[in-house]
Specification:
It comes from Thermaerobacillus caldiproteolyticus. InterPro entries: ComK (IPR010461). The protein is α+β, with helices and mostly antiparallel strands. The chain is built from 3 helices and 11 strands, in the order E-E-E-E-E-H-H-E-E-E-E-E-E-H. It has one domain.
Length: 180
């Protein structure tokens, strides 16, 4: 089915190609407009429902991801979410996640941003698309930096764990070699 030249989907899972999820009203229903690198879709789910479903798809709950963010960087309000850290799928909300006007952006796709009119920010993506958001520049930058902090700390933890595992593997292999 198509609405205003957009393909309409019943459900959606975020991927590395997902750039932004916007609220979208259609016949008094709360849906989402999803913009990906190569297309745009209308999804019969609210933005928060897409985030929650995507977290589950990748093996965690939204609540668990929020608790992880709190444990790693101490953020509880408008928390960025590591939907799938190994594929660098990190998203952040522009307002409270349950607010009807909340937009979710993928951190890896934000290329540039600048203040616009009062309480608005223009966001440019890596594929040269742009969007005007109803959020102050200061709030947007704060959310972007929080997400960068989460990405950095989580990446450091993953790398440290990998180094430790490689060290233990080498130690185990050395013991085997010495016993021969």
């Amino acid at each position: 089915m198509k609405v205003n030249e957009f393909i309409v989907l019943d459900e959606f899972i975020i991927s590395r190609y997902t750039m932004v999820i916007l609220p979208y009203r259609f016949h008094e229903q709360r849906y989402s407009k999803v913009i990906e690198e190569d297309g745009e879709y209308i999804v019969k789910m609210r933005p928060i429902d897409i985030i929650e479903r995507s977290c589950c798809y990748y093996g965690s709950s939204f609540k668990g991801r929020k608790e992880g963010t709190r444990a790693i960087i101490g953020i509880t309000h408008k928390a960025p979410i590591a939907v799938e850290p190994l594929n660098e799928i990190y998203v952040f909300p522009t307002t409270s996640p349950n607010a009807p006007r909340c937009v979710w952006l993928s951190h890896i796709h934000v290329f540039q941003y600048e203040p616009s009119k009062e309480e608005q920010t223009v966001v440019y993506f890596k594929n040269e698309k742009s969007i005007l958001l109803e959020v102050s520049y200061h709030s947007f930058v704060n959310q972007l930096y929080r997400t960068a902090q989460l990405r950095t700390k989580l990446s450091e933890r993953i790398e440290a764990r990998e180094r430790k595992m490689q060290y233990l593997f080498r130690m185990d292999r050395s013991k085997e070699w010495l016993q021969q």
